[in-house]
């Protein structure tokens, strides 16, 4: 009779502690709020059994893709993948996170500049079309400015162009005698008449003629000198700055011959002496274009 096989008590304990394979499978619990709780048991690096609980929420994200990309996903596979299910094959394709293409700032600026250029071209075309239908531009007969001759600011100091050419500006016996003297001087092929022989030159004085009379009248006007100006300043900027105090008659900004930029100072003439004094008081120490301005009388006779 054979003796029964005896086992060690330690083997019985190990067998009792062994769990069924079903107890190691993850447990999935559906919650009322739409989430899922997954419970798993794992063995860590120290050989200890740990419990891992995860809560998962499934969220459907609607994404707008290019129509051509969506249509390519419906194409039938061919070659080695012919007959396979639609979509990427996990055995041959690795999916990574989606990369969104962002255009650089330079491309956006270039597009903006192109749009601005197109708008400027359209505006120029519109101006040209509008100018084609406009009447003749108003031209002053005295200074050739863009205003009526009656409203010319220099009508009292300048002789009209027609008067100079025709000799009828302030025609008198002296003017006629001057023209005859100029004609007899020997200018046979030229119709040029010197300023001191033109009509009305004798009234202005024998020292300077018409030009001297104009400079004398111009110097009588209150003129100020503005210094420490920026090199980007132009005549229109100075005029806009000074017309806040009163009406101006003339503004002059000297420019460099090579660079074409402002030399740092300007001259502005006013109709009223009190307005010029007010402009000097307000502009002295005034901050303009990150610089501190200084205003003073251009000539001692203006004070």
Structural overview:
The protein has eight helices and nine strands. With 303 residues, it is of the alpha+beta class. A hairpin with a 2-residue loop joins strand 7 and strand 8. The longest helix has 28 residues. The chain is elongated and about 120 Å long.
Multimeric organization:
single chain
Beta-strand level of the residues, as a percent range? 5-15%
Number of DSSP-assigned strands: 9
Query: What Rg do the Cα atoms give?
Result: 48 Å
User: What is the 3D form?
Assistant: elongated
The structure class reads alpha+beta
Identify low-pLDDT runs.
Answer: 168-173, 204-211
Number of alpha- plus pi-helical segments: 8
Topology readout:
Blueprint: H1 9-17, E1 27-30, E2 36-43, E3 49-56, H2 67-72, H3 105-132, H4 161-166, H5 173-183, H6 209-220, E4 223-227, H7 235-242, E5 248-252, E6 265-270, H8 273-283, E7 287-288, E8 291-292, E9 294-297
Antiparallel strand pairs: 1-2, 2-3, 4-6, 4-9, 5-6, 7-8
Write a brief caption for the model.
With 303 residues, the chain is α+β, with helices and mostly antiparallel strands.
């Amino acid at each position: 009779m054979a003796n029964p096989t005896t086992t060690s008590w330690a083997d019985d304990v190990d067998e009792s502690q062994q769990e069924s394979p079903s107890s190691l499978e993850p447990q999935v619990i559906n919650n009322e709020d739409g989430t899922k709780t997954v419970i798993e048991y794992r063995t860590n690096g120290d050989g200890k059994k740990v419990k891992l609980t995860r809560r998962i929420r499934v969220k459907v994200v609607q994404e707008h893709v290019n129509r051509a990309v969506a249509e390519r996903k419906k194409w039938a596979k061919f070659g080695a993948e012919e007959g396979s299910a639609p979509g990427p094959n996990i055995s041959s394709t690795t999916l990574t996170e989606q990369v969104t293409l962002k255009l650089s700032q330079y491309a956006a600026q270039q597009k903006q500049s192109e749009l601005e250029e197109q708008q400027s071209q359209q505006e120029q075309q519109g101006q040209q079309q509008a100018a084609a239908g406009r009447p003749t531009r108003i031209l002053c007969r005295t200074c050739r400015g863009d205003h009526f001759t009656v409203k010319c600011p220099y009508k009292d100091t300048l002789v009209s162009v027609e008067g100079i050419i025709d000799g009828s500006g302030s025609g008198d016996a002296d003017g006629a005698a001057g023209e005859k003297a100029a004609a007899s001087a020997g200018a046979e092929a030229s119709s040029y008449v010197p300023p001191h022989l033109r009509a009305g030159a004798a009234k202005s004085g024998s020292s300077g003629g018409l030009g001297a009379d104009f400079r004398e009248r111009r110097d009588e006007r209150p003129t100020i000198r503005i210094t420490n100006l920026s090199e980007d300043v132009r005549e229109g900027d100075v005029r806009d700055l000074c017309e806040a105090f009163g009406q101006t008659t003339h503004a002059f900004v000297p420019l460099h011959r090579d660079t074409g930029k402002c030399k740092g100072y300007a001259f502005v003439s006013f109709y009223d002496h009190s307005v010029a004094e007010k402009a000097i008081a307000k502009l002295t120490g005034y901050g303009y274009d990150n610089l501190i301005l200084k205003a003073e009388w251009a000539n001692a006779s203006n004070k």
